[in-house]
Amino acid sequence: xxxxxxxxxxxxxxxxxxxxxxxxxxxxxxxxxxxxxxxxxxxxxxxxxxxxxxxxxxxxxxxxxxxxxxxxxxxxxxxxxxxxxxxxxxxxxxxxxxxxxxxxxxxxxxxxxxxxxxxxxxxxxxxxxxxxxxxxxxxxxxxxxxxxxxxxxxxxxxxxxxxxxxxxxxxxxxxxxxxxxxxxxxxxxxx
DNA sequence: TATAAGATTTACT
DNA sequence: GTAAATCTTATAT
Length: 191
Hints:
Elements lengths: L1 E2 L10 H7 L4 E6 L2 E14 L26 E7 L3 E8 L6 E12 L1 H8 L11 H7 L16 E5 L9 E4 L16 E4 L2
The protein binds a DNA duplex (13 and 13 nucleotides) through strand 4, strand 5 and helix 3.
């Protein structure tokens, strides 16, 4: 088991990273409490060429600025006024690619998952992009956080995901993106 | 300064 | 299965 290094995130193939991150372990230490979850679902956001990406066409705003920096940082933003969505910025400088984490499975600190989500069982406790951030206590102010630091990081536990359990398909909830909404950039581990 | 729309979740019919 | 909740960001006055 080891923590992913900074160079891992500099890979310019965001689709490869989205696939490779399935089975990795997302960890947070917030308020002195450690929680870990196995990543089971991701989506790739392929920079300026991707209509579904916030940085499509080189749009550079205060919000998307972080994606134009080097990979290895967190990009957390609020959707529908309620939900915090967690992205991993990837690729070299000026290449605004990112991987959206859409789902995790509780691994460590399960008690925290239950408390933060106010639930009594672990079923579907962090199966959506907005709910996993709640379970791991990730908030918008974590944007820009180094993923090799002490607050949010990713570990490789050597978990093997069989090819036949990996579902690849079009992304969800981005119908407005036209043709790009159909690209097979979504990866889901069917356990 | 004001308005429109959104990478979703939850509750209710 | 359908609809409401809810507030930030981006774009237009």
